[in-house]
Automatic annotation (TrEMBL):
PANTHER family associated with the record: CYTOCHROME B561, SUPEROXIDE OXIDASE CYBB
Protein name in UniProt: Cytochrome b561
Organism: Lelliottia amnigena (Enterobacter amnigenus)
Entry keyword annotation includes Heme: yes
Major localization listed first in the record, in broad terms: membrane
Every Cytochrome b561 bacterial/Ni-hydrogenase domain range: 5-172
Transport recorded as keyword: yes
Higher taxonomy: Bacteria, Pseudomonadati, Pseudomonadota, Gammaproteobacteria, Enterobacterales
Length: 176
C-alpha cells in the first residue's frame, strides 16, 4: 500500500494552495493599485476562482480512484473524525466559493472577464441576487482564512506533536 498521495494529488493540492493565495491577495491588495488596474485585478481573482473550482472537482474525482494513504501510526478515532470533517469543510468551501462568485458575476448583467476573455452575463442585472451572493462570497472567504489556518495547524500538529506521516504524505518527492 502507498504511504504517500499520488503525484497528481500532491500537484493539485499545492497548485490549489498557490491559486488560493493569489485569489486572496488580489482582493486584499487591490486597494494598493490604481483604479484603472481594478479590471485586471478582478480578472486575476475570477480566473483563479474558476481554476480552483475545476481543480477541486478534479481532485474529488482523483480521490475516488486513489483513496488517501493510511496515516502511520494510526491516530485515535476522534482525530480521524475531526480530520474528515475538516477536509469536508475545505472541499465544500473551495467548491462553493467559486460557484457563488460565478453566479454573482453572471447576474451583474455587464461584461466581466476570466482568462482574458469576456464571459457571458445575464441580459438584465439582478442586484438583489448579486448582493446576496456577494454577502455569502465575502463571508465564506473570511471563513476560509480560519479553515486554511486550521488545516495548516492540524498538519503541523500531526507532524510535530503526534509524530505521524500526515504531513509527509502530501509533500512532493525529493529529486535525486
Amino acid at each position: 500500500m502507498r504511504n504517500k498521495y499520488t503525484g497528481l494529488q500532491i500537484g493539485i493540492h499545492w497548485l490549489v494552495f498557490l491559486l488560493v493565495i493569489v485569489a486572496y491577495c488580489a482582493m486584499e491588495f487591490r486597494g494598493f493599485f490604481p483604479r484603472s488596474a481594478r479590471p485586471l485585478i478582478n480578472m486575476i481573482h475570477v480566473s483563479c476562482g474558476i481554476s480552483i473550482l475545476v481543480l477541486m472537482c478534479a481532485r474529488l474525482l482523483v480521490r475516488l480512484k486513489f483513496p488517501a494513504p493510511p496515516i502511520q501510526p494510526k491516530p485515535k478515532a476522534m482525530i480521524t473524525g475531526m480530520s474528515h470533517l475538516g477536509h469536508l469543510m475545505v472541499y465544500l468551501l473551495f467548491i462553493a466559493l467559486p460557484i457563488i462568485g460565478l453566479v454573482m458575476m453572471y447576474n451583474r448583467g455587464n461584461d466581466w472577464f476570466a482568462f482574458g476573455m469576456v464571459m457571458p452575463h445575464a441580459a438584465e442585472a439582478n442586484f438583489d441576487l448579486v448582493d446576496t451572493m456577494k454577502f455569502w462570497h465575502e463571508t465564506l472567504a473570511n471563513l476560509g482564512y480560519f479553515l486554511i489556518g486550521l488545516h495548516a495547524f492540524a498538519a503541523l500538529l500531526h507532524h510535530y506533536y503526534w509524530k505521524d506521516n500526515t504531513l509527509l504524505r502530501m509533500m512532493p518527492k525529493k529529486r535525486s
